[in-house]
Structure formats: structure tokens, C-alpha cells
């Protein structure tokens, strides 16, 4: 994996109100081309979205993973490590497919801002962008409008860290470990078969100074066109998202 090419973003940015299906552009901070966007969680519009599975599972068009949905001023940092997967086209698919994996604060029930960092992984007509390295991703909020995002390639020892400021307002009520079907232009990219992503050493730091693993977080799976595309599970210190 070429480390610099793999950066999703080191970004603190505002989200549209009312969970609109498109986040703010990242052209000043993102490593991908202009027009690549990460959005807030988009609720699934599938007819069975509210009745499937466990009451602790939500369905979304673009997010899969685990998210705490807590009172304001709860979280100040989130971290996790994972092996960057080798993406492929879903069975019968052709062309370009992509997904991203990241950790973040807010963007779920708090819709005014998000602090996140992670990587994209893509496949274009069978050509994979990169794969295989183990990375650690961490975000730390310093205030409602500032924070630090850090990505360390644990396979090579290279670290990139960025201090960020924005007019976006964090609520500190969501801590997340997410695989996303992100947007380019005005629509979601074709979602890659990423196999599985397991966030290990998954920890959220509380404003009170304590820490918590993902146990008890709400599980989120991606549902598009009435088809569930992911399966998410957690342990006391890990979140696994699998493509189904």
C-alpha cells in the first residue's frame, strides 16, 4: 500500500442540516479528487428496514459499523486499527467500485459536524488501488470546532497527523467505527465487495476521562434496493463489518 495515496481524509467539516444525503466537499483536506464526499448516515428507505433483525440494528444506505448514540458531551476521542482490505467487484459486476473505512466523532445523531479519518479502497476493472497494510486511525476533539486526526501505517511505521479547525460544531454524542459507501459527485459510488474489515483495539475516550469499547453501540448495516449488503458484529474491543 502506498501510504499517502491511501488517505481518505484528515477532516473536520460541517454536515448539512437534517441529514441531507451529501456531506461537505473535502477538496482542501481530502487526498482524493475533488467531488469525493462523505455524508452523514442516510436512513434506509427499504420497506422492511424497521422490522429486520435485532432491535439494536439500524439500516442505512451508506454506513455500516457501530455507532454510540449518547448524550452530548460524552466522547472526545476514537481509535481503531484494521487491515486495509483487497476490494473486488461484486459478483457479476464490472467497472469501478469503492468503499472507505474510518473512525469518527458525530455525523450520526449529531448532524452539525463530524471529525473523522480513514482510508478509501477501490477497484477499477480488476485493478486494485492498494491493499494489505495494517493502519491505526485516531481522532481527538479539542473543542467543538477543532481537533486532531492521525493515521499510522503500522506496517511501515509512517504517521500522518493534522490539526484541524472549522466552523462545524461537534456535539461529542457519537463515537463510530464505520465502513462507508461514500459519494462522488451527486451519488453514491458503486459499493465494493471489501470482504471484511475488523477494527481492533477499538476504543472511545470519554470526556470524563474513562474509555469504552464498542459493546453496547448501535450496529448499522447497509441496505440498498431492499438488499442488505453488510453484516456487523462487535466484541468488547472490536468491530467487524463483512460484505454479504
TrEMBL record:
<dbReference type="Pfam" id="PF01828">
    <property type="entry name" value="Peptidase_A4"/>
</dbReference>
<keyword id="KW-0732">Signal</keyword>
<dbReference type="InterPro" id="IPR000250">
    <property type="entry name" value="Peptidase_G1"/>
</dbReference>
<dbReference type="InterPro" id="IPR038656">
    <property type="entry name" value="Peptidase_G1_sf"/>
</dbReference>
<protein>
    <submittedName>
        <fullName>Uncharacterized protein</fullName>
    </submittedName>
</protein>
<feature type="signal peptide">
    <location>
        <begin position="1"/>
        <end position="19"/>
    </location>
</feature>
<dbReference type="InterPro" id="IPR013320">
    <property type="entry name" value="ConA-like_dom_sf"/>
</dbReference>
Amino acid at each position: 500500500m502506498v501510504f499517502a495515496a491511501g488517505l481518505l481524509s484528515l477532516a473536520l467539516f460541517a454536515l448539512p442540516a437534517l441529514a441531507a444525503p451529501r456531506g461537505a466537499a473535502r477538496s482542501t483536506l481530502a487526498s482524493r479528487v475533488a467531488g469525493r464526499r462523505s455524508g452523514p448516515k442516510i436512513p434506509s428507505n427499504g420497506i422492511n428496514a424497521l422490522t429486520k433483525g435485532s432491535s439494536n440494528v439500524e439500516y442505512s444506505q451508506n454506513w455500516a459499523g457501530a455507532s454510540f448514540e449518547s448524550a452530548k458531551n460524552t466522547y472526545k476521542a476514537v481509535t481503531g486499527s484494521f487491515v486495509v482490505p483487497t476490494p473486488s467487484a461484486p459478483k457479476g459486476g464490472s467497472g469501478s467500485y469503492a468503499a472507505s473505512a474510518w473512525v469518527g466523532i458525530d455525523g450520526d445523531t449529531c448532524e452539525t459536524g463530524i471529525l473523522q479519518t480513514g482510508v478509501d479502497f477501490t477497484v477499477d476493472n480488476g485493478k486494485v488501488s492498494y491493499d494489505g497494510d495494517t493502519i491505526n486511525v485516531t481522532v481527538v476533539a479539542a473543542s467543538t470546532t477543532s481537533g486532531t486526526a492521525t493515521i499510522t501505517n503500522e506496517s511501515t511505521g509512517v504517521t500522518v497527523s493534522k490539526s484541524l479547525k472549522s466552523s462545524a460544531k461537534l456535539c461529542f454524542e457519537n463515537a463510530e467505527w464505520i465502513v462507508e459507501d461514500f459519494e462522488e459527485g451527486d451519488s453514491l459510488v458503486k459499493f465494493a465487495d471489501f470482504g471484511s474489515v475488523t477494527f481492533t483495539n477499538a476504543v472511545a475516550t470519554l470526556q470524563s476521562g474513562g474509555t469504552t469499547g464498542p459493546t453496547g453501540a448501535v450496529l448499522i448495516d447497509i441496505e440498498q434496493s431492499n438488499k442488505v449488503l453488510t453484516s456487523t458484529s462487535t466484541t468488547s474491543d472490536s468491530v467487524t463489518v463483512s460484505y454479504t
